[in-house]
Amino acid sequence: xxxxxxxxxxxxxxxxxxxxxxxxxxxxxxxxxxxxxxxxxxxxxxxxxxxxxxxxxxxxxxxxxxxxxxxxxxxxxxxxxxxxxxxxxxxxxxxxxxxxxxxxxxxxxxxxxxxxxxxxxxxxxxxxxxxxxxxxxxxxxxxxxxxxxxxxxxxxxxxxxxxxxxxxxxxxxxxxxxxxxxxxxxxxxxxxxxxxxxxxxxxxxxxxxxxxxxxxxxxxxxxxxxxxxxxxxxxxxxxxxxxxxxxxxxxxxxxxxxxxxxxxxxxxxxx
Length: 271
Description:
The protein is α/β, with parallel strands linked by helices. It has helices at 11-22, 37-47, 70-79, 99-106, 138-148, 162-171, 173-190, 195-215, 220-226, 233-243, 246-270; strands at 4-7, 30-33, 50-52, 63-66, 89-92, 111-116, 126-132, 152-156. The protein has two domains: 4-166, Rossmann fold (3-Layer(aba) Sandwich), CATH 3.40.50.720; 173-262, Orthogonal Bundle (ProC C-terminal domain-like fold), CATH 1.10.3730. It contains eleven helices and eight strands. An eight-stranded mixed beta sheet has the order 3-2-1-4-5-6-7-8, sandwiched between helices. α5 (138-148) links the parallel β7 and β8. The longest helix is centred in the last third of the chain and has 25 residues, at 246-270.
């Protein structure tokens, strides 16, 4: 693994650092640039890594992870003093910011991998969509994959536009399941269960269903059919969902997320 510099020491950076160290990366090969002194002290204590308040202190790292808020990325990139001889790989986890805009702000042709992780990465159970621009070498692509695999699975997409769909499906996806859990828990309470019992049943059911889908060779549709007996309780619930156009609701929601991802990229790129 290469030396790695993080610009930004927030939650996603912490998750990646923890995953990388668990994967055997030496703490001495990781540097984090973070403006908040208390945050730097916490990172040093937790991981025994090097920290700094100077973003340019990461410039000699082979991989530089841009882990700042999208609204700050332009300023951060324009302030970096890039040495072309270092041939850095930039991994951006800033949602919605195109690689072409990042390159423009860096004022040079750089190897950039854009990533769309999701919040389960905080538990090393994430899903990340990755796109590499034309300046990324096969070796750098492998490096980016290893970095992001420290917090879950990685999926490469062929075009940067497909990251909008990744955002709609997995980037925003955890919130959809949380909404479903929230609604199921409330429904359970309305049916007479107390709050704690309803919560436990919903969360374990969600966990079990996800594990079954992930570990089974059957498709989600086949698994649904397996637990839906004709004339039974599950069938009645499914029919109720479908009579309310459940599939269309989901399709419309993901389309809305996809469209917003496109418009955000345009807004952030024009700033």
